[in-house]
Amino acid sequence: MAHLGGTANNSHSVAVQNQNNDKGSVREETAEEKVDGVDLTRYNDGSVKLRNPNIELMDQDILYHLALGSGSHDLQEMFGDVKFVCMGGTPKRMETFAHFIMDEIGYKLPAGTQLQDISAFSYRYSMYKVGPVLSISHGMGVPSVGILLHELIKLMYHAKVKDPIFVRIGTCGGIGVEGGTVVITEDAYDGLLRNSYELAILGKIVHRPAILDKRLVRELKSLASNDDPYETITGKTMCTYDFYEGQGRLDGAFCEFSETDKMAYLEKLRDFGVVNIEMECTIFAALTHYAGIKAAIVCVTLLDRLKGDQVMAPKEVMNEWQQRPQILVSRLIKKHLAQMGHLKSLASTPSSIKSPRRFKLVQQESEAHE
C-alpha cells in the first residue's frame, strides 16, 4: 500500500513493491506530506501532526522511556517553545552539549539552579532542555534510536511544537577520510546500499525512504569556517546493525572473511560514494522524513577504516574531535535563533506538573520497564 488515497504532493518515494514469496510480502512506502490537499504531518498553525489516529483517543499517552506523560505533565508548557532537538549516543556527551549550547546561546538559569536530567526516572535516556534546545542521548544502534524517535515525535505533537529541526550529533568511522573530519550526511544507506529503512510490521517487510533535508545539509556546510583546523565534508553515510562483522571489522569475537575481502568491500563503499559508517542514520532519516520533520546528521570520524579497525586515538584527542560537530550545530542553532529574534537570555519555566498523582504513576511505569 503506497498511498493513503488521492494524489500525493510534495512527496519523496521509492518504487512500490508487493511481493508474495516465502519471505512474506514487501511493501515500500512513500512518505507523502499531503493527500488531496490535506497535510498529513502538520496542522494549520505549523504544529506537528501524528500519522496515528489512535493517540487522540487515549486518555493519556505515557512516554515511559522518557518518564513523561500527556496527563501527568503540562507538555506544552514544558516543551512548546522547542525549536531544535539534538541527540547523540551517550548521556555524558549530550549533557556536555547542553552546557555548551547554554553558553553559546546565552541561556541563563536562575541563581541557585542547575540543568536537570528531565528523563532521569526512565533510566534509559537523558534529556536536558536549554531554552529552545533539547539535548537527548539516544543510545547505540537502530532499535534504541527508533524507540526514542517515536516518543520524541509524540512529544512534539503533545507540546504543539511548530516546525522543529532534529539533528543527530555523533561519531563514525571514515572511508578514506582521516580521523577528526566532520561529516554531514547527504544520503543514508543500509548495509545493502539501499536508501531506505527496513522494518517488519505485522509479519510484512516495510521499506521507508531514508531522506534528509538537502537544504539543511547545504546550510550546515556553508557554516563550516575556513579557519576551522579540520575538514568538513558532505557525503553518503552507511548504517549497519553491528559494530564488528556488519562493518567489516576483523577484530570481533567472530570473523569469517579475510583482510582481502574486507578491503574489497570498503573500496566498493568508497566507489559508491560512502564516506562514513555508523549505526543510526537510516532510521533517523526515515522516521523524521515520515513525520515531516527537517533533520540532519553531523558526525566526526574517529578513524579511517581503510587504515585499520580499532580506534587508537588518545582520549583527550577524541574528546576534542567530538566537540567539532557540536560547534557546527551550534552555529546553525545560533543563526536560526538570531533570525527569529530569539537569541537572548531566557528565564526557565516553573514546575509543569499538572497532576502529581499521574506524575508518580508515570515514574512508576517507567521504573517497571527497567
Automatic annotation (TrEMBL):
It catalyses: uridine + phosphate = alpha-D-ribose 1-phosphate + uracil. GO terms for molecular function: uridine phosphorylase activity. This is Uridine phosphorylase. Its EC number is 2.4.2.3. Phosphate binds at residues 124, 168-171. GO terms for cellular component: cytosol. InterPro entries: Nucleoside_phosphorylase_CS (IPR018016), Nucleoside_phosphorylase_d (IPR000845), Nucleoside_phosphorylase_sf (IPR035994), Uridine_phosphorylase_euk (IPR010059). It comes from the Eukaryota. Pathway: Pyrimidine metabolism; UMP biosynthesis via salvage pathway; uracil from uridine (phosphorylase route): step 1/1. Residues 24-34 have a biased composition (Basic and acidic residues). It comes from Anopheles dirus. Gene3D superfamilies: Nucleoside phosphorylase domain. Substrate binds at residues 247, 249. PANTHER family: FI09636P-RELATED, URIDINE PHOSPHORYLASE. One of its GO terms (biological process) is nucleotide catabolic process. Belongs to the PNP/UDP phosphorylase family. Catalyzes the reversible phosphorylytic cleavage of uridine to uracil and ribose-1-phosphate which can then be utilized as carbon and energy sources or in the rescue of pyrimidine bases for nucleotide synthesis. Shows broad substrate specificity and can also accept deoxyuridine and other analogous compounds. It is an enzyme of class 2 (transferase).
